[in-house]
Amino acid sequence: MRAAVVTSFGGPEAVRVVEAEVPEPAARQVRIKVAAAALNPVDAGVREGVFGGAGKAIGLGWDVAGTVDATGPATAWSVGDEVVALDHGLVKPLGTHAEYVVVPADAVARAPRTADVVHAATLPLNALTAAQALDLLAVPEGGSLLVTGAAGAVGGYAVQLAAHRGIGVTALAREDDEELVRSLGAARFTVGVVEAGGFDAVLDAAVLGERALAWVRDGGAYAGVIPRAAPASERGVRTAAVEVAADGARLAELVRLVDEGVLTLRVAEVFALADAVKAHARLAEGGVRGRLVLVP
Asked: How many domains would you assign to the chain?
């Protein structure tokens, strides 16, 4: 099968599409025939060597939408099930940017009924990150939340999930993204003029760090999206950074919200797996609204 990997670190040109052995599922694993797989900033970080792994062939890709192709013992999934999943792992021999991928059975959820595979592939990593970050913040219904980077993939899901919970959401984004983030459920919008201590919590998808921490009220909460990189606590503010975990049951809840129209799946552009270098180059240009998606 074909798979996108890096064997040396660098820019988009470091990505190689190679022939690899089709992986076999072990106990409590399933193999998915990949129909679509999103490209995320974490893939660029892996490609650049941010997470180590020098001297190894490292597979790319975390999100997948496709069909169960084979199962190991002790799984509840069946061949032919249409699914989505998160293939968690920074340094792994194969990722979802491939024709087949093996994942733990408990990382899998049935695919949305209301979305095609390309759109479905944008859900797992970013929606799980947003949901788990909101769990860290624990903002009650009626509370106030500022989402930085609200027009991005994680930020957009966070706006929708928080608004669905009855939280008052203010979106921080570029001026020309106001219509978008309001359509996602933001009650208020700002391009950067934010009152110090004005919010019960901040979900910092734009990775502003201490600048965003200052916008949390005394005793409030801050959640970042870069693991182990939250700013130090001050003024009694709880600070944490989400480290996304694969969770098929939680992913199934997010799929249900897609089918109910609560969550919007956004695709910016689609590339063939063979054009993975071009997809990475487009990601590096920035300004992407929605996810780039690879199809084998």
From this structure: 2
Domain hosting residue 14, numbered range = 2-123+266-295
Q: Tell me the per-residue pLDDT of 221-243, one tens digit each, with 9 for 90 and over.
A: 999 999 988 999 999 999 999 99
Sign for the CA dihedral angle at 99, 105, 108, 113 comes to positive
Check which CATH number belongs to the domain holding 65 and give it.
Answer: 3.90.180.10
DSSP for 258-281, written as a single string: HHTTSS---EEEEEEGGGHHHHHH
Query: Is the pTM higher than 0.85?
Result: yes
Model confidence pLDDT, tens digit, residues 242-283: 999 999 999 999 999 999 999 999 999 999 999 999 999 999
Which has the closest alpha carbon to 46: 99, 89, 109, 104?
89
117 lies in the same domain as 146: no
| CA–CA dist 275, 291 (Å, integer) | 15
Sign of dihedral through CA atoms 176, 224, 147, 117? Answer: positive
Query: Quick check: is 111 in a domain?
Result: yes
Do 112 and 15 reside in the same domain of the chain?
yes
